[in-house]
Design goal:
The protein has two helices and six strands. It is of the alpha+beta class. The strands form two sheets. A three-stranded antiparallel beta sheet has the order 2-1-6. Strands 3-4-5 form a three-stranded antiparallel beta sheet, with no helix packed on it.
Length: 82
Amino acid sequence: MSMTKRFAVAALLFIAAACEATYYKLTDPATGREYYAVDYTNKGDMIEFKDAKTGARTTVQNARVLEINERTFNDGVAAPAR
């Protein structure tokens, strides 16, 4: 494989890896309620994020944060609220 083709393949792989999202399940330890988000901000003992189910900006104290895969995220977002 020529050097140009190798560079092009490496660039495409890099772009594909950069486009992959990270998904999180955040759990409020006080209520047990689960939230799903693609990003969050840690502000001391407060976690702030956009709830994927409702679109609301949400803040939870001492939330447990777990990185999850896309399928688990989609299943969680689609599940009815408890």
